[in-house]
Structure formats: C-alpha cells, structure tokens
C-alpha cells in the first residue's frame, strides 16, 4: 500500500512563507510526475504546480503563483516540496499532493492523492 503523506501547512500572515512536503511511502513502487493541487472553500480543486521525474525536471505553475511558489523534489526520498513565498489571502486553501505511481508488483500505473493540508493566509 502506497501512501502520500503531507506536512507543512498552517497559519501565516500575508507576505509570509510556508514550505509543504509530501513523501510517498510504501514498497515496490516508482514515481513519475508529482505536484500540488489546492481547493478553496466553494471552489473547484485546481492544479498549483507540477514537476516531472527525469533529469530535466520540467515544471509547471498556475499563473497566479508564478514567481512566488517553487516546486522541487528529492527522488532519493520520494518527496516533493512546495516552497510558498509572498503568500496572499487568496492562497488560502487545502493543499493536496498528487503523484503518478508505478506499482512494480502489478506492473501498472495509477494516480494517487494525499490527505490534504490546510494553508491559511490571514492577518
């Protein structure tokens, strides 16, 4: 059983920073693309940032976070990070980790979600 475990959420003032972490745990798996989504109250879940597995580490950011957020990963630790700087009240949401997982036992790919971590930006 593979699990995505997130940490790092919390309450921060506007202009502040937070760093989210998401570690994939389990056995007999590999990861491909990993990233972050968020869902604010009354809104649909939206992609925030993605990074691929390969040496080029291609990344994607939603326009509203470009220049403020940075996604990175440590493949040796099966961990993806989201450094969030210059946070704004509109960044308030539950942030979810997402990963493409390869199950070696079943030779099959699937997509998996973390449980979510709350980020609140407020003075």
Task: Tell me about this structure.
- The chain has 123 residues and is an all-beta fold.
- The protein is built from no helices and eleven strands.
- Strands 2, 4, 5, 6, 9, 10 and 11 form a seven-stranded mixed beta sheet that branches.
- Strand 7 and strand 8 form a beta hairpin.
What is the topology?
Blueprint (H helix, E strand, L loop, with lengths): L2 E5 L2 E3 L5 E8 L3 E11 L6 E6 L7 E3 L7 E6 L4 E6 L8 E11 L4 E6 L3 E5 L2
Parallel strand pairs: 2-11
Antiparallel strand pairs: 1-3, 3-8, 4-5, 4-9, 5-6, 7-8, 9-10, 9-11
Subunit organisation of the chains: single chain
The major sheet is characterized as: 7 strands, mixed
C-alpha geometry: elongated
Secondary structural class: mainly beta
Uncertain runs: none
Radius of gyration, in Å, reads 14 Å
How many E strands? 11
Order of helices and strands: EEEEEEEEEEE
The percentage helix is: under 10%
β-sheet strand percentage: over 45%
**Discrete helix count:** 0
Mean pLDDT: 95
Measured distance between first and last alpha carbons: 40 Å
């Amino acid at each position: 059983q593979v699990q995505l475990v997130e940490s790092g959420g919390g309450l921060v003032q506007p202009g502040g920073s937070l760093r989210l972490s998401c570690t994939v745990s389990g056995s007999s798996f590999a990861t491909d693309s990993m990233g972050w989504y968020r869902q604010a109250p009354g809104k649909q879940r939206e992609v925030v940032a993605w990074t691929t597995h390969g040496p080029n580490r291609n990344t994607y950011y939603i326009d509203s976070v470009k220049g403020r957020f940075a996604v990175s990963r440590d493949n040796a630790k099966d961990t993806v990070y989201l450094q969030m700087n210059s946070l704004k009240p509109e960044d308030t949401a539950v942030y979810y980790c997402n990963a493409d997982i390869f199950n070696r036992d079943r030779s099959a790919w699937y997509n998996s979600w973390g449980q979510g971590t709350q980020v609140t930006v407020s003075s």
